[in-house]
TrEMBL record:
It comes from Mucilaginibacter aquatilis. PANTHER family: MOLYBDOPTERIN SYNTHASE RELATED. Pathway: Cofactor biosynthesis; molybdopterin biosynthesis. One of its GO terms (biological process) is Mo-molybdopterin cofactor biosynthetic process. One of its GO terms (molecular function) is molybdopterin synthase activity. Belongs to the MoaE family. This is Molybdopterin synthase catalytic subunit. InterPro entries: MoaE_sf, Mopterin_biosynth_MoaE.
Length: 136
């Protein structure tokens, strides 16, 4: 398992980790910073995490996915710090022999990450900033 909190997500590193002769499918969800929210222009976002708890919960979710589906590999990576629109901020990657397992596990991992991993984001607009309750 590749479980990380990082300043910058390296897409090539994640693919190299997940790619395997036994994997017929490598599936990614990559979440990026939008340039608007509710019609307001987003200047940038700041992500903060409770590192030890976040990594533990990310690993727990990866283990659940590995036991629920026949996966070859799992990558769960989230960026922290200030991020500009268009920047990747979360990567969920899974590899498996067949595509169905990789699609299902990928969706499970991003949905559960957003529900249970202690990572918070603050959106900055021209006139104000707000903390968003996207994570616990």
């Amino acid at each position: 398992m590749l479980i990380r909190l990082v300043e910058h997500i390296d897409l090539n590193e994640a693919f190299a980790y997940l790619n395997s002769p036994t994997a017929g499918a490598v599936n990614f969800f990559i979440g990026t910073v939008r340039n608007q929210t509710k019609g307001k222009e987003v200047l940038h976002l700041d992500f903060e995490a409770y590192d030890a708890m976040a990594l533990t919960q990310m690993e727990k979710l990866a283990n659940i996915a590995m036991h629920k589906w026949p996966l070859v590999g799992v990558a769960v990576i989230h960026a922290t710090g200030a991020k500009q629109p268009g920047t990747p901020v979360v990567l969920i990657g899974v590899s498996s022999a067949h595509r169905e397992a990789s699609f299902e596990a990928c969706r499970f991992l991003i949905d559960e990450l957003k529900k249970s991993v202690p990572i918070w984001k603050k959106e900055y607009f021209e006139d104000n900033s707000v903390w968003v309750n996207a994570h616990p």
